[in-house]
Amino acid sequence: MLKVDRLSVAYGAVTAVREVSIEVPAGSIVALVGANGAGKSSLLSAISGLVPYTGTVTYNGQPLPKQSHQVVAKGLVHVPEGRRIFSNLTVYENLLAGAYTRWDMTRIKQDLARVYKLFPVLEQRRSQYAGTLSGGERQMLAIGRALMSRPQMLLVDEPSLGLSPLLASQVLGLIREVNTQGVTILLVDQNARKSLQIADYAYVLQQGRIVKEGDACQLLNDPAVQEAYLGGHKVSC
Question: Residue 34 — pLDDT band, cuts 50, 70, 90?
Fold first, then answer.
């Protein structure tokens, strides 16, 4: 579905991503693992058209546009780090904002019902201003808003950042549920253990380069990955 070939991102004299090549098959969850500053978020931002890059990105066999609104129109939606919701709008209004490229009101209502089923707390809070939600609820809203555009694929950046372990596990479990409903996922998350447990395949980034890749379960059991990103703990799939 998504193929990135030799993509590089630079901020002035600083190169954040160095000739990275990855593939994300349709229907899969692919995780990007690495320390802070490894280039994971820059890679997602480049794919979604938020920052300029060199290299090529193809989506469903066609070159992906470099303008973010055109990327969304192709069915690829970015859920950025920081839960960037509209705090002064209600939950319902935030969700409708996610469908801004659409005019099919019948399907929009169907997708709204789908989001409420996936995240029941959002239906309970639908008339509440988004700025008054908890961190976990805001993350659910950010994902729900992205789903309102009816994406084929989501780029999800640090969904569990700042959440308690219980809420983090819940949010990542919901991402897995979204995937089972047919949405392909490219995932970046600080919780490397949980990311690898729900992913099918993974890439390890270090200083902007891919240094390791493979089946997510195999990487979870890789001693080098355990030492670098799992606190040296052995973890099973």
Answer: very high
pLDDT of res. 187: 97
Alpha-carbon span 8 to 55, nearest angstrom: 6
Sign of CA dihedral 31, 33, 38, 41: positive
Q: To 10 degrees, the CA torsion angle through 11, 34, 24, 80?
A: -60
Amino acid letter, residue 17: V
Least-confidence region, from 64-68, 71-75, 230-234: 230-234
Tokens of residue 198, six digits: 């729900």
Dist CA 170 CA 84 (whole Å): 19
**β-pair type (14-24, 2-11):** antiparallel
Neighbours of 69 (CB within 10 A): 10
% helix / strand / coil in the chain, to the nearest 5?
40, 25, 35
**Nearest-angstrom CA–CA distance, 204 and 53:** 20
pLDDT at 233: 65
B/e letters for 202-212, b = 16+ CB within 10 Å, e = fewer, are: bbbbeebebeb
d(CA 42, CA 145): 22
Residue 117 CB coordination number (10 Å)? 10
Joined together, the tokens standing for residue 34 give 């690495």
